[in-house]
Amino acid sequence: MRGSGAALWLELLGGLLVVLGAFLAALSYFLATQTVDPSLERNLLRVRIDLAGLLDILAHRTATAGAWTAGVGAVLFFGAGYLAALARWAVALAALFAVGVWLWLVLFK
Predict the structure, then answer these.
(1) If you average pLDDT over residues 75-90, what whole number do you get?
(2) Distances from the Cα of 51 to the Cα of 7, 37, 56, 58, 60, angstroms
(3) pLDDT (tens digit, 9 = 90+) per residue, 9-57?
(4) Domain that holds residue 10
(5) C-alpha to C-alpha distance for 56 and 22, rounded to whole angstroms
(6) How far apart are CA 73 and CA 75, in angstroms?
(7) Number of structural domains in the chain
(8) How far is Cα 18 from Cα 10, in angstroms, rounded to an integer?
(9) Residue 48, phi-psi category: left (phi > 0), alpha (psi -120 to 50), beta (remainder)
């Protein structure tokens, strides 16, 4: 089960999502530690843009997206074999259902 092609692709996708989550976490750290030029902030406040608040919101949302991305990637990476087996069972059950409906239509209609 571990060496199947589907599990390998799911592991690859999971690893890429973990790396993307790490990049998003680094971006959120960069946004959170960004220093704001006082004259720029004063000029932006004239048009009602709170730059410090905007950077804080962006850092929070980016950190949340990075955590979710890394978490989904870890589930895909470590559970790829189980997810591939679950997908095989789902396809098998769908095929059995389709054959059952076909038999019901042929025999009883």
Answers:
(1) 89
(2) 45, 10, 8, 10, 14
(3) 888 899 999 999 999 999 999 988 888 888 888 888 888 888 888 889 9
(4) 5-108
(5) 19
(6) 5
(7) 1
(8) 12
(9) left
